[in-house]
Amino acid sequence: MKSQQAVLDHTHFMLDFDEPEIDMENHPMALLLEEFKDSYMKTPVMGDIRQGVIVDKRSGEWLVDIGFKSEGIVSSRDLDRLGNEFDALTIGDEVPVYVMREDKDGNLMLSISKAKAEEDWIQAEKLLENQETHEGVISGYNRGGVIIKIGQVRGFVPASQLSSESQSQQRTDIDPEERWSKLVGTELRYKVIDLDRRRNRLILSERLAMREWRQAQKEKLLQSLKEGSTAEGVVSSLADFGAFVNLGGADGLIHLSELSWGRVNHPSEVIQIGQTVTVQILSVDMDRKRIGLSLRRMQPEPWETVADKYQVGQIVRGTITKLVNFGAFARLEDDAVEGLIHISELADRRITHPREIVAEGDEFDLRIIRIDIDRRRMGLSLKQALPEPEENEFDWEIVPLGENPDAQNEDDNQPAAEMDETAVPEFA
């Protein structure tokens, strides 16, 4: 019984004993594992991109510390690929590096250009995914298009993906290989439309970027334009019905009737493509995204000065602008005022159509016969402006004495005794 009780007491003692807790954070084995893990994580693997610190800039190479047992080396060849981008860096500055390999001497070879290229590929992938518009400078070209660098990555813009503005800059007077040379150094907007890192393929499009940019600009412009205000733009194209003006992202239309106070047959008579003009905003259609413009309203209306410049009876120079059945319209010289020459005022004789006397483009001296400022009408006359025929002062036609009634009457009034042969003039 005694031995049994002793066993029970010993068991109770074992159960009531509080064993001290182990501090795992400071345990030697835990520290050893952490050191191993940290060392393993810091061991560079080919293809890693690390942030390093420049510790030395030797002739032809840089030494960069990435936390490994020894510094890595960036070769002169790799530095040459960077151009002037990193010339300003000095000892102590951080740079991204790409782990390449260890050489036969155990030196870790690093590449800054590859690290930058990897970052640039990631940037290009984001642009493709988000379809964001970016801007870049054309750095080169070939027969098929132009080259834009996204950092260290070369992107290609095929000719078919250039905007109409860029395509208009191509040179056709030289070797086709050089036709895009004029674009080098210019900046353009682009979107990434195709990317294949394995094939080192990056395709860009200016045309899509410009389409999107113009749409955004047009929305912004439409919100800012007010009817009756003025704006400056560049004539972008001409059509039979009017001219389009680029107002900075959106085109507005100047209808043929709003180009000039005078009659216009084609916009080319008034303006040319590429010309900078100041126009008045006539209308802004937010639903149809259309802008109506006027060029003529930027000039005083000619009829406002008619009373000061013209008066009835005045002779003016005019150009025939249009023929109608009832007459011809004529524009006064150096003015946009037009008047009507009624068919009855074209000639003294009766005519059936104005074309019998005048043609479009003919110039004549005309007489103003009527001015109606309130109705904006002016009556002109061609026949009244013609010089009157000169009258002969003497009629030298010889009439026999016996056939001249005036002479007979005069003779009848004279006494018969006074009439003799000397009274009749003799003509040789």
According to CATH, what is the topology of the largest domain? OB fold (Dihydrolipoamide Acetyltransferase, E2P)
The number of helical segments is: 8
Distance between the termini: 200 Å
Indicate the CATH architecture of the largest domain.
Answer: Beta Barrel
Largest sheet: 5 strands, mixed, barrel
Domains (count): 4
- Compute the average pLDDT: 81
Overall shape: it is: rod-shaped
Structural class: alpha+beta
Question: What is the CA-atom radius of gyration, in angstroms?
Answer: 49 Å
Helical content band? 10-25%
Helix-strand sequence: HHEEEHEEHEEEHEEHEEEEEHEEEEEH
The tally of strands reads 20
* CATH superfamily descriptor of the largest domain: Nucleic acid-binding proteins
Please write the CATH class name of the largest domain.
Mainly Beta
Strands of the widest sheet, in order across it, are 1-2-3-5-4
Strand content: 25-35%
Oligomer class = single chain
Descriptive overview:
By secondary structure, the protein is α+β, with helices and mostly antiparallel strands. The protein folds into four domains: 75 residues, Nucleic acid-binding proteins (OB fold (Dihydrolipoamide Acetyltransferase, E2P)), CATH 2.40.50.140; 81 residues, OB fold (Dihydrolipoamide Acetyltransferase, E2P) (Beta Barrel), CATH 2.40.50; 71 residues, OB fold (Dihydrolipoamide Acetyltransferase, E2P); 75 residues, Beta Barrel (OB fold (Dihydrolipoamide Acetyltransferase, E2P)), CATH 2.40.50.140. It contains eight helices and 20 strands. The protein has a five-stranded mixed β-barrel. The longest helix is centred in the first third of the chain and has 19 residues. The radius of gyration is 49 Å and the shape is rod-shaped. It starts with a helix and ends in a 16-residue tail after the last helix.
